[in-house]
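User: quick one, fold this
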Amino acid sequence: MIVDAHVHLLPERLAAKIRRFFEMRKAPRLIYPYEPHAARGALKASGVGHCWSLPYAHRAGIASGLNRWMAETWGPDPFVEPGATVHPDDDVAAIVEEAYRGLGLKLFKIHCSVGAFPADDRRLDPLWAHASRKGCPVVVHGGNAPDGTATEDEIALIERTAVRFPEAPIIVAHFGAPAVERVADLLRRTRRVYADLTPMVATSVHPDRSLIAGIERRILFGSDTPTVGLTIEDSIAAVRSWALDPRDEEAILGGTARALLAGVAG
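Assistant:
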């Protein structure tokens, strides 16, 4: 079963604002509908069997309501694993506790460029402490450029957090592209840092086969639906083009994502 570990099935009003943001900046055509149930249908039609829906907060005061919507909308749906978010200007400990205990959400997403904070912001320590205790995966978009790219210095900020919280499962979104070599090195030097292959709008994230040798099972598949100009099928085909050992390919396309969620404490 293919698990898409990076999608955004969000409230329609928020999704429409995100779509307008990209259209106003003349981004390449985004090929999937932003309405959440229509986007869900596109994922199913592409052959995806399960997905992680990742919200993100651009300011304080909205994470709690957004997390509640995620839990209420997608919690009963076996196809969708709803995620949570938090902003460092929030009461981070309270938001994280509400998401996990009150809403039953097992994974988190933070977006440094949208929220205007660095990946090593110490105000997020309650999130990292929680992820360390409970094993909740945290997807981190560390780049601050409008096009989603990350620099080596920005990956270094994620590394600082990983060093301080070595038990926290951290997933570097978009493989930190174009700083993919720095991210691959980070995966090799840590035990619980992962990376996803999520495209950046219409730019595929597809490191050289030699770069991922030995770390295949620390990599997750992601499509960024609906904010993407590449088809889900093409992103799946890119993984298969590596001609990996079948066990490694299965890990990237779903096994590692399932294992991460299975490791979350009850």
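User: anything notable?
Assistant: Residues 2-262 form a domain with the TIM Barrel fold (CATH 3.20.20.140).
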